[in-house]
Amino acid sequence: MSFFDFFRKADPEDVLRDLCQCLVIATLKYGTTINDSNNNMKSSNAAAELLFLLLHLVDISMFALLSPQKRELYFSHLTLEGIRDYSAACIKQEAPADIESSPFNDLLERFNSRQLTYAKCKSLMGDALPWPGSKLFAFSFFVMRELDGKSRAEFDEILAGDTKMSESNREDFPSLETVLENTAFVVSYVKAIDIDRRIRKLR
Predict the structure, then answer these.
(1) Which end of the chain is less enclosed by CB atoms within 10 A, N or C?
(2) Alpha-carbon distance values, 133 to 20, 28, 56, 118 (Å)
(3) pLDDT tens digits along 183-201
(4) 5 falls in which pLDDT band (50, 70, 90)?
(5) Closest Cα partner for 159 from 177, 139, 183, 185?
(6) Dihedral, CA of residue 87, residue 93, residue 98 and residue 100, to nearest 10
């Protein structure tokens, strides 16, 4: 590498490819921490929640640092490539045939739904602890729901922090211990990826 290479503007395609790889690798590593040997599809679907959250954080960074035109172009590309690469990686890991039949559009639809939920959350962490109203609590909820396969209604307002959990529905949401474990993992990867630094290269 020459001295002048340090001042050369990064190729957006290279930046996006590198960022995509970081997001997918983080998601796959997270998947190893929640692996259910009896149901690889559930584990893969639950781990995909990390990819959705990281993409959401990338979107926030792009919104703050890029023009509307660049944000729309780059984020659309990154989202499609990230979901496609993650799906392909899961299939290569000898997942059962049923995960291969899971259409790409299903993951994309789930991501779009998460975008709506996370946009309602007031912060990533919360004031003191990642509790209802924080994106990390919502993330832990979605992981829990994918793993246990239970369908829970009327959760949007609780995740957004607009309605408090009652004793009757407390068991339908993740424990503080689970949320803190997820928080430690997510925060460590957000710091390692350094999203803002990468997005600045796209200006």
Answers:
(1) N
(2) 28, 26, 16, 9
(3) 999 999 999 999 999 999 9
(4) very low
(5) 139
(6) 40
User: In the 3-class helix/strand/coil scheme, how is the chain assigned residue by residue?
Assistant: CCHHHHHCCCCHHHHHHHHHHHHHHHHHHHHHHCCCCCCHHHHHHHHHHHHHHHHHHHHHHHHHHCCHHHHHHHHHHHHHHHHHHHHHHHHHCCCCHHHHCCCHHHHHHHHHHHHHHHHHCCECCCCCCCCCCEHHHHHHHHHHHHHHCCCCCCCHHHHCCCCCCCCCCHHHCCCHHHHHHHHHHHHHHHHHHCHHHHHHCCC
The answer to whether the beta carbons of residues 55 and 78 sit under 8 Å apart is yes
Q: Are 53 and 114 in contact (CB under 8 A)?
A: yes
Give residue 2's identity as a one-letter amino acid code. Answer: S
Query: What proportion of the chain, given as a percentage, has pLDDT over 90?
Result: 63
Average pLDDT over the chain, rounded to an integer = 86
Q: Return the percentage of the chain with pLDDT > 70, whole number.
A: 86
Q: Using CA atoms, how far apart are residues 149 and 5, in angstroms rounded to an integer? A: 50
**Could you tell me if residue 168 is left (phi over 0), alpha (psi between -120 and 50 degrees) or otherwise beta?**
alpha
Kindly list the domain boundaries of the chain, sorted by start residue. Answer: 10-200
pTM for the full predicted model: 0.89
Give the CA radius of gyration of the chain. Answer: 18
